[in-house]
Amino acid sequence: MSRCRNVLRALGAILVGGAFFGAPSQAQATFTMKLTASNGAGTVSQTVTGTGLIVFAPGAFGDFNSVFVQVATSNSVANMSPAELTIGSTNITTTHANASLTITLEDTNFNAPVNVHYLASQLSNTQSPVGVATITYTSFLNGAAGTTLTQTSTSGNVIVNDPVAVPTTPFDLKSVTTIKIHNPSGSSETVLLNGITDASPTPVGGPLPAPAPPGLVLALSGAPFLAFGFRLRRRTQA
After folding, report:
1. Which residues, listed in sequence order, are joined to residue 88 by a DSSP beta bridge?
2. How many domains is the chain partitioned into structurally?
3. Which pLDDT tens digit goes with each residue over 200-231?
4. pTM score, whole prediction
5. Is residue 234 part of a domain?
6. What range does the domain containing 16 cover?
7. Fewest CB atoms within 10 Å of the CB: 7, 69, 70, 211?
8. What's the rounded Cα separation, in Å, for the pair 67 and 100?
9. Exposed/middle/buried for 118, CB within 10 Å: 0-12, 13-18, 19+?
10. Do the domain assignments include residue 64?
11. What is the mean pLDDT of the chain?
């Protein structure tokens, strides 16, 4: 089944279950998004909750002229494989040098899949001007951190898979995205990003590459670097 079909099925299940768009805190909600932004010498924070889907568009927030999280999702209510958190089409704009924003997504009630072996993180971003920010993205499974992805310029999708011990259910997934602006103040800086956290029975994007034979590595060590483009699948087809 195609990735698009999987996403549509997940969103359908989420919407049938009932989604809250930037809803106030509720005791029964297990999916939360917390934003913490620099605000002059201090910080400002806000937490919203939802069942599967959160949209956050407060406009000005702390040192940022605009913060717009178009879609943050969790598929815990759908009991699908892989378990997944996404933060999609997040757009921020600021004129403040050294402005920072941290977005934490967490869902504490994943019951599928039951045979998780990998924690995968994916990150892509577009910056204007290029090189205006440093972005980090870290996934957590039951509080244990995976490999942190760091991007300092516009970047295509990057995937990292971390082997994990099979968790019992329910289990907790969390992603922490931090954007730090380092352009001189007075100009407008914009960052658009997408991040995905998966807990999966198999590596996301296909099997992990096998190490190259030592002889091949030695033979290639003196060769010119060859750049090539490629497209990563987010996961193998069923």
Report:
1. 71
2. 1
3. 999 998 655 444 444 433 343 343 333 333 23
4. 0.77
5. no
6. 3-220
7. 211
8. 12
9. buried
10. yes
11. 80
Q: Is residue 116 part of a domain?
A: yes
Angular region, 89: left φ>0, alpha ψ -120 to 50, beta rest: left
Residue 49, beta-bridge partner list: 23, 32
Confidence of residue 29 (pLDDT cuts 50, 70, 90): low
Query: Structure tokens of 7?
Result: 């996403």
DSSP 69-132: EEEEEE-GGGT-SSEEEEEEEEEEEE--TT-EEEEEEEEEEE---S---EEEEEEEEEEESTT-
Residue whose pair of structure tokens reads 């999702």 in the numeric block? 73
pLDDT the model gives residue 26: 38
Contact 19, 50 (CB under 8 A): yes
Residue 136 CA: distances (Å) to CA of 22, 98, 116, 133, 198: 24, 15, 24, 10, 17
In the chain, count H helices and then E strands: 2, 13
Question: What pLDDT band is residue 30 in, cutting at 50, 70 and 90?
Answer: confident
